[in-house]
Amino acid sequence: MRFPIRPFENLPQFNFMGWRRFWVWFSILLSVATLGLLVARGLNYGIDFAGGKLVQVQIVSSPSIGAVREALEAGSFPAATIQNYGGPNEFLIRLGANDPQLQTPLAEQRVQAALQAKLGATELRRVEFVGPQVGGELRVQGALAMLFATIGILIYVWFRFELRYGLGAILALSHDVLLTVGILSLLQTEITLTVLAAILTLIGYSLNDTIVIFDRIRENRQRFPNQALASVLNLSVNQTMSRTIMTVSTTLLVLCMLYFFGGEVIHDFSFVLIIGIVLGTYSSVFVASPVLLLLEEWYQKMARDRAARDAATPAP
Q1: DSSP bridge pairs for 90
Q2: CB 250 within 8 A of CB 8
Q3: For residue range 212-260, what is the model confidence (pLDDT) as tens digits?
Q4: What are 55's strand-pairing partners?
């Protein structure tokens, strides 16, 4: 028995390829602006990558962040970074690797004493320490993980389709990761191992929709060999649109539940994936396919020029 309401069947047909140059240039401008943002603001590396000590405390009086900062400044911790964590009376206090107070034995107990002196009873909930050298190594390893994942995807798409398909997929994927990292920089979200895991998950998920569209393009090119490539791409994207909407909707539904009800531990992970999946869906439709068309047009032009040169060359 079919469900009586099927909202994504018989969707209107859009001329996606007719606007391909607009979307490609729009994405280029977004990418350039994101690079400028990254240079200007940089990334807010967490303890995992920057090194230092993370102290989680619970203060009975539920003070504001400003009051916590004043108490820490009075206790000789002026460079500490403070943020709410979970409830209104729980805080994460980060002492950077360059903070001279970090070298003091039992620095977390001095933090607790400074808070208790000004704000009342304070409980230490968690203490984590990462040396600056370990943090630097984790940054390098994280970058290598993303690089190797991207290279592996390029090789996979190259063997399954053609090199131009792989280039289109990698450009769309790089666009997704760059814009996601740019949003994290804009919001100054702390870059931790959890965020890195979300970005690596995004790399795999973002490719999924692109592969489905590319597979349909390959089928339709075999089915309609005499049709212009732009028409085949338009047909393929429109045919997979209902599947794209359903997949993204169900995934976002789960991620939103995790974001709002999953707690602070998984908050950043779900947030990064929500951003990445929205960008990945956009890039699969408006970046990967138009880039594939532009690459195909360039390949065909090169082939025509080569044939013309061969025809003009006198036979020996």
Answers
A1: 58
A2: no
A3: 888 888 888 888 888 888 888 888 888 888 888 888 888 899 999 988 8
A4: 93, 127
Q: Yes or no: say if 82 and 42 are a contact pair by the CB < 8 Å rule.
A: no
Tokens of 142: 């994280």
pLDDT in tens, 160-211: 777 777 777 788 888 888 899 999 999 888 888 888 888 888 887 777 778 8
Nearest CA to 46 out of 145, 147, 128 is that of 128
**Other Cβ atoms within 10 Å of 276 Cβ, number:** 24
Q: Domains in the chain, please, with CATH?
A: 19-44+134-304 (1.20.1640.10), 52-130 (3.30.70.3400)
Give the Cα-Cα-Cα angle 177, 179, 183 (nearest 5 degrees): 115
| Residue type present at position 43 | L
CB 176 within 8 A of CB 283: yes
CA distance 69 to 84: 12
